[in-house]
Specification:
This protein is α/β, with parallel strands linked by helices. It folds into two domains: 3-181, 3-Layer(aba) Sandwich (Rossmann fold), CATH 3.40.50; 188-272, N-(1-d-carboxylethyl)-l-norvaline Dehydrogenase, domain 2 (Orthogonal Bundle), CATH 1.10.1040.10. Helices cover 49% and strands 14% of the residues. It has twelve helices and eight strands. The chain has helices at 11-22, 34-53, 59-67, 75-79, 93-106, 122-126, 160-172, 188-204, 209-220, 226-233, 235-249, 257-264; strands spanning 3-7, 26-30, 69-72, 84-87, 112-115, 135-140, 149-154, 176-181. Strand 4 (84-87), helix 5 and strand 5 (112-115) form a beta-alpha-beta unit.
């Protein structure tokens, strides 16, 4: 496997592009927006610069990584030589299904079609194609360059060969796989989204985000509190995850009304500059 195509140049997409290129793969980074692609490359260059300053990689390594990444707004061009696709668009089932239908038209017959969905069942996304055996969940964590784990999800039709190649890819880019069963939320979102939703309830009951985070860090040993985590993940991502799990598992996974209000108000967290805390972007 030589070429990885990443679809979507947002926070997750540019991170996946960076670690794939660092791992030695040729990367095609695709987005519908030229501005998003330009911003993504600037972010990747900045991240690599930090790694150089910390002595983790050399300047030559950073330059070689950047040279392995090509950007394009043309989906067909991005996909034609891909050995692996990693789709990183919004958590919207219909959008993902539309993209996967396009992938079937544009990709080689043997291309593995991966989705970075955090909660939507892989089998649902795969239903848009006739290549269910080549569709797999590859759920990276945010921030991608720093987080070691990748959740790998085998759909109902995913072949053992697809699984083997995907696990090898994850290992080659310096990550470790956690294999999850294909139900809404998988493992990580199933647990963390509920925790963050409960934190929202605690805020509504009068607890301050600072005290909630402090309690979970000092008393439960969490590396960061749930309010900080929600700001990092993005409130809309958690909301969509809860909505997916509510649909499949019932009202106990219903997103709290305050979470929805915060999304409507644009208080998404770090990506919008303000969530429970304020960020200088």
């Amino acid at each position: 496997m030589k070429t990885v195509t990443v679809i979507g140049a947002g926070v997750m997409g540019n991170g996946v592009a960076q670690v794939s290129a660092t791992g030695g793969y040729k990367v095609m980074l695709n987005d519908i927006s030229n501005d998003a692609l330009t911003k993504a490359m600037a972010t990747i260059e900045k991240n690599l610069g930090k790694m150089v300053n910390k002595g983790k990689i050399t300047e030559d390594d950073a330059k070689a990584t950047l040279q392995r990444i090509t950007i394009t707004t043309n989906l067909e061009e991005a996909c034609k030589d891909a050995d692996l696709i990693v789709e990183c668009v919004l958590e919207n089932l219909e959008l993902k299904k539309k993209i996967f239908a396009d992938l079937e038209r544009f990709c080689k017959p043997e291309t593995i079609l991966g989705t970075n969905t955090s909660a939507i069942p892989v089998t649902e996304i795969a239903s848009a194609t006739s290549r269910g055996e080549q569709v797999i969940g590859i759920h990276f964590m945010n921030p991608v360059p720093l987080m070691k784990g990748v959740e790998v999800i085998k759909g109902q039709l995913t072949s053992e060969e697809t699984m083997k190649i995907t696990l090898n890819y994850v290992e080659k880019i310096g990550k470790e796989s956690a294999i999850a069963v294909d139900f809404a939320g998988f493992i990580v979102s199933r647990l963390l989204d509920v925790l963050m939703n409960e934190a929202i309830k605690l805020v509504q009951e009068g607890n301050s985000p600072e005290e909630i985070d402090k309690a979970m860090q000092l008393c439960a040993g969490h590396p960061m509190g749930p309010c900080t985590l929600l700001d990092l993940v993005g409130a809309e991502i958690a909301m969509h995850g809860m909505e997916t799990m509510e649909r499949d598992f019932g009202d106990r996974y219903k997103p709290h009304p305050l979470l929805k209000k915060r999304v409507q108000a644009g208080l998404l967290g770090k990506k919008s500059g303000k969530g429970f805390y304020t960020y200088d972007n």
